[in-house]
Amino acid sequence: MNIKRERMDYDLVIVGAGPSGLSAAINFKKLCKKNNKEFSVCVVEKGSEVGAHILSGAILQPTALDELFEDWRNSEDCPANKVPVKKESLKYLTSNKSYSIPNIFIPSAMHNKGNFIISLGSLCKWMAGEAEKLGVEIYPGFAATEAIIDNNTLKGIVTGDLGISKEGTPTENHQPGIEIHGKFTLFAEGCRGNIGKNLIKKFDLGKNSQHQTYGIGLKELWEVKEKNSNPGEIFHTIGWPLDNETYGGSFLYHLNKNLISVGFVIGLDYKNPYLSPYEEFQRFKTHPKVKEIFEGGRRISYGARALNEGGLQSLPYLSFPGGALLGCDAGTLNTPKIKGTHTAMKSGIIAGDEVFENLSKDSSNVELLNFNTKFLESWAGKELKEARNVRPSFKYGLKIGMLLTGIDQIIFRGKAPWTIKHAEPDHESLKNKNESKKINYPKHDGILTFDRLTNVSFSSTYHEENQPCHLKIIDKNLPISNNYELYDSPEQRYCPAGVYEIHNENNIPKLQINSQNCIHCKTCDIKDPKQNIMWVAPEGGGGPNYTNM
Predict the structure, then answer these.
(1) What is the CATH number of the domain that holds 159?
(2) Domain count within the chain
(3) Considering the chain, what is the average pLDDT of its residues?
(4) Is 108 one of the catalytic residues?
């Protein structure tokens, strides 16, 4: 279909209004103001508003925010300064008991003194307002769907068409996407960015790094009784309900106004195809130490999102002709800290510096040659280097992983003379169903634990129904011939939103995709055993709305 598209031109185009993209825009515009330059910048965001697709725990290490804003700590409007961390603990759980791990055995990287408990969506919304004051143009509801590449050089992006029917034909509401050309384009799509992963392949950015590894994070926001609220308190857990071979743990953060963020993270290298990350999260809440906190409370919202866990070993080369990858699009999360906002923001700050310097020299659509080195030499890059051995240590199981982490982080302080490699890619980790034990999860009570579809209704997810399915099955036979036959269709269990179901028609199994339930976590794009599911951006503005989560 030959579509005539409107064209817009900017000096800098940024895809994604998350912490890294907004940091790049803000720093870039501050440099323009300081040096009397009138360079233009726009940010396109697929969420219906800034913050709608932002999901994190979240504990903020304020290092990068201090670099961007001198006075944020004293600002009445900034949402990041309201709840400083006052108390923290790490506990090992059995099925009915909890054991506090002494601070002496907890690596310093995992301590949170000086950090803040925040809603990352609210922070991004505030940052967007600050960016617009500087002259940044932000366009929510526009999903970047493809990169414009000419002569092996990135020239910009195309936003998705609106008003395309399920059959792929224009409806009466059809609006062609826009070509947005930039002298430089930065990709800040978040973990497993659709364009970003294609650029990594196109420019062979991963040739000197290992494969990326991932986790899935699930989160609920609760309002609890005042007696159970202690703003500033955080605790993390390891152990139950997971077995010793599965990497993961929980977080529980006390915000103000009697709000608590509770969540669970599971490494997507888990081996049992019958494991359900969602059900493990629900089961975790039934632990006596946890359950008592939520008695008499109410769940306000729910969400889930994949996160990068590969660290330094998995970090691709960050730049290519005409653009660069920022934050979680590249994989800058610090796994032992369970934080990625500060490192993502730092990548954006450095990218803003590099783009400004090149534009000031009248350079355009060239490679930001110093970006990769400057990031690795920054405090953020040094953090990732010191943290590099923690996640791959757990390929040996929880006990050996904790021992190796203690040696690496407490004795060597992240400066060990070795680097541990990751195990196989996440999509290759599942055992055959005949080698695996089925897991019988407890029934939901509708008070503390909930079924998936009920929880999805608390994610404010909406998609226009008459549009092409954004979950593309590459080989239509594989969901049954491979996934069903070998693994009993694990997509039924790893999806946290009930998107994938197996229906039997005349005793013939068939995969049904409920794409309207999709909360954009990207887990299917990562975990499918044959990499046969491809997540692409639906119509702009569709998906969950996590604002204030």
Answers:
(1) 3.50.50.60
(2) 1
(3) 97
(4) no
